[in-house]
Amino acid sequence: MTTSNVTSKPLRPLKGVRILSLALNLPGPAALMRAQQMGATCVKLEPPAHPSAPAGTSGDPMGLYNRAAYDVLHQGVKITNADLKTEEGQKALHKELAKTDVLLTSFRPSALKKLGLEWKTLHRQYPKLSWVAIVGAPGARAEEPGHDLTYLAENKLVTGLDLPPTLYADMGGSLMASEAILQTRLQQLQKGKGTRLEIALSDAASYLALPRSWGLTTPGSAVGGAHAGYKVYPCQDGRVALAALEPHFAAALAAEVGLQKSHIMAMFAPETHTAIAAYLAGKTRQELDALGAAKDIPLHTLA
User: Fold this and answer.
1) Would you give the end-to-end CA distance of the chain in angstroms?
2) 86-104: buried (b, 16+ CB within 10 Å) or exposed (e) per residue?
3) pLDDT tens-digit readout, 158-175
4) CA 247, CA 250: separation in Å to the nearest integer?
5) What is the pTM of this model?
6) How would you classify the pairing of strands 230-235 and 238-243?
7) Among 22, 18, 20, 194, which residue's Cα sits nearest to residue 123?
8) Residue 59's closest CA among 43, 51, 112?
C-alpha cells in the first residue's frame, strides 16, 4: 500500500512574515490579499477619509466606489488610519516599519519622497526590511500619469471602442507584486538583509501581451481565428466558445461534424470553418454542453 503526500490544504509560505501596505485602489490591495492567503500577517495604513465622506468611510478610494470589492480585498487585513503628512502619522508609520518584513507601496516616486520614504534611508534604518514598490511604468516613466486602460492600450490590448472586460494590467501587476514579495522574502532568508523590487503595471500589460506580440493571437493566426476549432461561433440559442485546438480534440470535432479530413491542416481550410459553423448553428447550448462532455471536446456555451 502506498500513501500520497498530495494535500488539498493550501501552502502558507509567508506564515510568520509581516507585511505593511500603504497601497491604495486595486493592484496593491490585490497583492496584499494574495499575501494574506499565503499566510502573511498583513497590516495596512490608510489615509484618513475625506472630511465630507460619510462616517465609517475608508480612506482608500476603493472603499468609496466599490465597498464589496474593498471588503473582499481586505479580508483578514488589520487596517488603521494614519496621515503620513503629519508628525503623528510618521510616528505610526515607523512604529510599524520597525516590526515589518516587507513594505508594499503604490505611489509615484515623488510622492514617496515627500513622505520621507526613500530606499537608502529606510535600508539604513531597517536593514532587514524589504520593499515592493508598485508603479505605473518603469524608470523615468514612473512619474507619468497612467492607468490600467492606458497600459493595455499601449500594448495593443484595446480593440475598437469597447472597454476591456476586466482590469488586466492591475490584476497582472498584483500577481507580479505578490511574486516579488516571495522573492524578497527568499532574499532575506538567504542574505539576511532586505531588498527593494519595483513592479510596473505597464510591464504587467506587456507580459500579458506577449502572445499577441509573438503573433499567436493576431487576426489570421492559429488562435486568432484561423483554426476552425478555436473560435466563438453562434449556436441556436446563444454562442459557443470552442477550443478544439490540439489534434485529438480537432479530430473528435471533425468526426462529429462529419468532415472527411481530420488532419490538423484541414482545420485551417475555409470549408472547414463553414462546415463547423453550420453544424453548431443548428445545436442548442444544452446539446453542445452534452456533446462536449460525451466526446471530450473543450467548449463552453454562452447566452
Assistant:
1) 48
2) eeebeebbeebbeebbbbb
3) 989 999 999 999 999 999
4) 5
5) 0.90
6) antiparallel
7) 194
8) 51
Lateral strand order in the sheet of 230-235: 230-235, 238-243, 299-302
Query: What is the rounded CA–CA span in Å between residue 152 and residue 146?
Result: 10
Interatomic CA distance for residues 23 and 8, integer angstroms: 31
Query: Is the Cβ–Cβ distance between 74 and 43 less than 8 Å?
Result: no
Q: How far is CA 46 from CA 89, 113, 131, 151, 178, in A?
A: 10, 18, 17, 26, 20
Candidates 212, 204, 215, 80; CA nearest to 150 is 204
In contact, 199 and 105? CB cutoff 8 Å: no
C-alpha pair distances (Å), 48 with each of 25, 26, 77, 83, 273: 15, 18, 17, 6, 58
Phi, psi of 29 (to 5 degrees): -60, -35
Q: Grid coordinates standing for 103?
A: 513594505
pLDDT block averages, 10 residues each, the chain of length 303 = 61 95 97 98 92 73 92 97 95 97 97 95 96 96 95 95 96 98 95 96 98 93 95 97 95 92 84 96 98 97 96
Is the Cβ–Cβ distance between 276 and 253 less than 8 Å?
yes
